[in-house]
Structures are given as C-alpha cells and as structure tokens.
Amino acid sequence: MMRAIVFLSVLAAVATGCSDDDPVVQSCEDQSCHGVSGTNTGIELAHPASAKLTCTDCHGGDGSVVDKDLAHVQPTAQFIIDRNGYIKNLSVNELDMVNPAYLQFLNPGDYRVAEKGCGSQSPKNDGSGCHTQLVYNAQRSTMATFTGHFNVPRFQAGMQDRPAVLGSRALSDPQRPNPAPPGSVASIAQAIPPGATAPRDDIHTAMDNYLPKNCTHCHQWSYGRNDARGNFRSSGCTACHMYYNNDGISLSKDPSAPQEIPPHPQEHTLTSAINETQCEHCHYQGARIGLLYRGVIEWGVSEDPPFPNIGESLHNHPPEFYLQASADSNHPADLHYDAGMACADCHVGRDVHGDGRIYSTSKFQVAVRCENCHGLFCSEAALNSIQRAWFESPGVKTEKDIDTGHTSTGRYFNERGQITCPSCGTWMDDVTVEDQTHIWFEHCSNCGGAFFDAGELTDLRYKTLADTVRDFVSPKRD
Residues with Cβ < 8 Å from 227, sequence gap 6 or more? Predict the structure, then answer.
C-alpha cells in the first residue's frame, strides 16, 4: 500500500439512514437538516454501507423527530453549557465529567463511549461483537495510555522502577494472561499533579506537575489542543480513522456542517487508509517520525537558515520555524517516505491498536521489525546454532522466532542480488539451495554469514510438496 490520499471525516460514526430499509427518510436526514446521505447534496456515509447503520446507532439521539433540540443530545454539565457545548480542548479529567450520551453524540469513537459507538454495545451488534476486542485493545494501547512519556522520565529521576506506574488514565487489564508478556503491567494509575502541600523545591514535585500538565495532549483519551494548524483532530478511534485537514475546516457536503471555522473533520467518512499527515497531528517531534519522516526539521528562530522554510504555519509556529531540509540531497527524507510509503504501511494492527496489554513503553508493543520486509542476516555461528537446534530439538521451531517476515515479501526480493555483507562489507555470493532450488540466498565467503530474504530461513528447514512445485517452476539463478 503506497501513500493513501484519503478523504475522511466528521464527528465519528455512520449515516446510512434512520432505518435499515430506507436510507432516505425524514428527520435526521431531512433535506433541511443533513441532506440525502451518500449523495452530492448530503452527509457522507461514514461506515461501509453493508453495515446498515443509522445515525442514531452510532451517535445516539432521537431520529424520529425533526426538531433539532429534541433530536440532538444536549449537554447537561453546566461547565459544558457555559462553553456552548464545545469539548474539543478539555483535559482528560474534564472529559470524564461530560455526560456520556452527549460525548457519544459528538464522537462515538471516544474511548469512554466506544463500546456503544463501535463495539459490543452497539445497537447493531448481531453477536459478531463489531469491533469489541479492538476497542478493548486500543483503550490500553501506548498511543492511549502514554505510559512511556510518563514513566521513563520518572524512572530517570529516581521516582520509580522501569515498569509503568502512571498513564493518561487509570486502567487495568482483566484479560492479562499468565505468564504475561514482557514489559506489561496489570494496571496503571492516572497521572495527576500533586497537591498544594507537596514540597515546591523537590524534583519529584516538579516532575509530577510538568508531566500531566504538558504531556496529556497527544494521547487518544483526549482531543489534543485543537488550537492551531496541524493540531486539529478527534479523540479515541476517530483520532486516527477520521481525517482532519491541517486547517480543521470541513469540506463535507452536509448542508448543516459548519465550513468556516475549525475544528471539523474533512468529511463524515471513516477510513483505514491513514496517511502520514493524519499521523502528524500528534507525531511531529523528532525520532524520524512525523515532520522529520518527510524531511522537515525544526529550526526555531535562528538566523540564516540553511534550507527553505515549509511555507505554512504549523503547531503554533510560523513558517520559518520549520525547514524543508530534504531540499538538500545531503539531508534526505526517510527512504520509506521517498519510496511512497505512509506510516500505516508498516505500523498496523498491534503496533497502533495494541494487543490488550498495558505496556510500559511502546517498544514492548510495537511488533514490526525491519526483518519483516528486508530479510535476516545470520552469522556463521548463529546459523550453526540454529541448524543444531533443528536436529537436537525437532519440536522447537527456533527459526520462526526470528524469521518473522512474509514469504511473499521474500519472493519479491529474490531478484535483488549483489549485496554486501552486513557484517564485514564483502560482496556476498548468490547461492541456490541444492535440493530446494527456489530458495535463493546470499553467502559471505569471508566471514561465513548468510542473508535470507523474509521467510527463506523457515522454508529452508521444511521440504514440502509445494517446494517441489516451486523448484520446478522457479527460474534458474544466474
């Protein structure tokens, strides 16, 4: 999948009609309200039409009446009423105080209500569970808990051990298996500033004040800041799966959608084809992610910039703050970006949704490895060790613990020969396995190392009927 140009969303859920039988009905899809869904004059269908979801299945409210105040869920908390119903810059604690029905009405994907909007409690759950497990997993993902940002600094300050103690929200994992995966914990407490009695000259007090006040705008239990170009987004599932333009302006065909002021999704459409611009609404600082991924660096306010600026203000900074370093061939963008790949071409599934465990840092959650696509180098000693294990422990699939790539990817890279040894730099010899001639790998005559494309090491161990067929149809290696 190459970089996706995606046309996405608005509040959060779905609008195939107010009844299963007729998607063009009165009330919430009346021409005077949201238009005729799925047409050039009405609100977009957020969910695939096969789901047959109505407006109220996801957003709640009363689809049987035309009066807006009666059809729409109204806020009940006075502090929300005083804000004219606006919640997209509230803290986690403040969002916890919002009436769940009102929160669902605005954003069915918010993790506080996602079980109703996207999961097992959806009115259209027919026993399949909709996205039940995904909701459970995503609520505990490091993209939601932000555990690494809270606990690594506290560990370095001598305030705790390495396992996570705090997160963006208090959570437990009742599904946690025994034995549990490395790096996971059973529960975390919510990071909150210490009380007024905490000693002001203590580094611990400073740390626990700074982290919850300044590091809680990027995780998915909140909407973020929603205060400047590049910062506009939703919360929960829709933080990723509903696209916001950098300016936060709606381009929806819904006649009732405000199109002059942010923050609003681009369209009322859910997507799984997420491009890097969507990721940048949170990930835009360092570590080869976000802006740096596409060759943009922070310059600040220094004079005599070495590269041109990006020509637009982003993240509360003027255009001059960011420079397009990739304009110089000596400072390229990430090679995956130059190859046309988006973040979601590699980071999918467990990497972003999690697997239901509460991990102390993202390094325990992220499963994708370079070897998944690019193959595996084994030193001579490592290869001999693996081969001994094949004979001494035939029931243990040792090669599958390290050869995690897809065989289809490996076959794609079969044509790529003439590589240098990652260990000693010597040009490697192209080798064909004598009794499995479809396996092409590279061998170093100097240090004895071998490079296998994804899936080849596993394939090497097993000779199957399918291998015999592949041997017959595979071209001979030059």
Answer: 89, 316
- The bridge status of strand 296-298 relative to strand 322-324 is antiparallel
pLDDT for 392 beyond 70: no
Digit-coded pLDDT (tens) for 137-185: 999 999 999 999 999 999 999 999 999 999 999 999 999 999 999 999 9
The residue among 159 and 38 whose pLDDT is bigger is 159
The CA dihedral of 96, 98, 104, 108, to the nearest 10 degrees, is -40
Is the per-residue pLDDT at 399 higher than 90?
Answer: no
Structure-token pair, residue 198: 């905490």
Q: Which of 147-151, 168-172, 337-341, 370-374 has the lowest mean pLDDT?
A: 370-374
Specify the pLDDT at position 170: 95
Q: In the prediction, which pLDDT does 30 show?
A: 53
pLDDT of residue 245: 95
Mean pLDDT of the chain: 82
- 3 state SS for the chain: CCCCCCCCCCCCCCCCCCCCCCCCCCHHHCCCCCCCCCCCCCCCCCCCHHHCCCHHHHHCCCCCCCCHHHHCCCCCCHHHHCCCCCCCCCCHHHHHCCCHHHHHHHCCCCCCCHHHHCCCCCCCCCCCCCCHHHHHHHHCCHHHHCHHHHHHHHHHCCCCCCCCCEECCCEECCCCCCCCCCCEECEEEECCCCCCCCCCCCHHHHHHHHHHHHCCCCCCCCCCCCCCCCCCCCCCCHHHHECCCCCCCCCCCCCCCCCCCCCCCCCCCECCCCCHHHHHCCCCCCCCCCCHHHCEEECCCCCCCCCCECCCCECCECHHHEEEHHHCCCCCCCHHHHCCCCHHHCCCCHHHHCCCCEECCHHHHCCCCCHHHHCEEECHHHHHHHHHHHHHCCCCCHHHHHCCCCHHHHHHHHHCCCCECCCCCCECEEEEECCEEEEEEEECCCCCCEEECCCHHHHHHCCCHHHHHHHHHCCCCC
